[in-house]
Design brief:
Blueprint: H1 6-11, E1 19-22, E2 26-30, E3 40-44, H2 56-77
Antiparallel strand pairs: 1-2, 2-3
The chain binds zinc ion (ZN).
Zinc ion (ZN) binds near residues 2, 5 and 8.
Length: about 80
């Protein structure tokens, strides 16, 4: 965890968030300033400075969950 990182603080529950999905590797929550209905951020729970540092396992989990949430949102919001 990086103390001055808002995403780490959200993962640790120090900052509030509206969580829509969470598992051992990733967390998905609604954007505080949404560009559209259901605007969701999906992040790895570990802190990484760049995408190059994120293990493939976590990147794969993120995109699979993005697809699942997209299916749910499509039904909810049309
Ligand atoms: Zn962080």
């Amino acid at each position: 965890m990086k103390k001055d990182c808002v995403f780490c603080r959200i993962v640790k529950g120090i900052e509030p968030s509206w969580t829509v999905y969470e598992d051992d590797l990733i967390k998905a929550f609604l954007d505080i300033n949404p560009a559209s209905e259901g605007h969701t951020l999906i992040i790895p729970k570990e802190h990484y400075e760049t995408i190059y540092m994120i293990p493939d396992r976590e990147l794969k989990r993120i995109i699979v969950v993005a697809k699942k949430l997209a299916k749910v949102y499509r039904k909810l919001f049309k």
